[in-house]
Amino acid sequence: MDGCPDAGGADPITEETMSFVDLHCHSTASDGTFAPSDVVALAVRSGLSALALTDHDTVAGVPEASEAARKAGIDFLAGIEISCDVPKPATMHLLGYGVDPESPVLLDLTKRLIAGRNDRNPKIINRLNELGIKITMEELKAEAKGGVIGRPHIAAILLRKGYVSSMKNAFDNYLAPGGAAYFDKERVSPRQAIDMVRASGGLPVLAHPSQLRSENDAQLERTIKDLADLGLAGLEVIHSDHNDALVARYTALADKYGLLKTGGSDFHGTRKKDISLGIANGRRIPRDFYDALVERLRPATKPDAGTRGRGDAERS
Ligand code: AMP
Ligand code: ZN
Ligand code: FE
Ligand code: FE
Question: Which of 10, 15, 65, 160 has the highest local Cβ count within 10 Å?
Answer without folding.
Answer: 65
